[in-house]
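quick one: nicotinamide-adenine-dinucleotide bound model?
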Amino acid sequence: MDRLNGKTAIVTGGANGIGQAVAQVLAEEGAQVLVCDIDSAAGEVTAAGIRAKGGVAVFCRADVSAAEDAVRVAAQAQQWTGRIDILVNNAAYLGNFHGVLDAGEEEWNRCIQVALMGAQRFTQAVLPAMLEQRGGSIVNVASVQAVAGCPTSVAYTATKAALLGFTLSAAYDYGPHNIRVNAVNPGPIQTRISPKPGEPAYEWQRGMTMLGRVGYPREVAWAVLFLASEEASFITGATLAVDGGWAAK
Ligand SMILES: NC(=O)c1ccc[n+]([C@@H]2O[C@H](COP(=O)([O-])OP(=O)(O)OC[C@H]3O[C@@H](n4cnc5c(N)ncnc54)[C@H](O)[C@@H]3O)[C@@H](O)[C@H]2O)c1
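yep, here:
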């Protein structure tokens, strides 16, 4: 319950699904959490839920596709607690995806601006604090689709693969400053965007895993917690699959 005592964490896309579970789990381990999202109603509920259980959290409306929002969130974290130890780049554009023939500029732009450039903007905004502290942990939420082809989602897939490249490059540059940068690749996780039990897509996803089931947001959050914590002190530039064995099958 105290693996992150005294640490300050920023979680993007923290209002719902995986990001919400990450915010909850980090707070349960003692972190002070800034829940960032464009969904203010759900974000306020998530932060209030953490506080109701004795945790420390605030909601901060932020669109990761806006550079000024990243700067504002980092400043708020500094003002609030005087430090930034953990950044979880979890927000992604999750729309109606297409294959190459049908994927338009809008779909490509939104995928890149949210999942990839959002990680760039928030990482850039928190690095000065982490450099000054001589330490920090950044966890990027990519996807099994970064390493395994899936139907009709070229922009999303390419963006998630690029996020793994971003992870390697940032890990290389800031490793000497004791700033670790890692990624998780979730497989099929039951959130509001996922196919529902019984639907053909759900059965297909379930069948792609070795465990024969979909996962739950907290199962991703526990992996993020590990990478964010001191237990992963010698791990950087790594990608941890949280996919029920999908990519290894
Ligand atoms: N659910 C899965 O099966 C699955 C699988 C692999 C990877 N992922 C990844 O996990 C992450 C979370 O997905 P989820 O399933 O929890 O989805 P979700 O829709 O439940 O949560 C995503 C959150 O991101 C927020 N968001 C979207 N655009 C934003 C922006 N511009 N700025 C700030 N916040 C924004 C949304 O409001 C939402 O709260 C994503 O990066 C997704 O690609 C999910």
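The first helix runs from residue 17 to 28.
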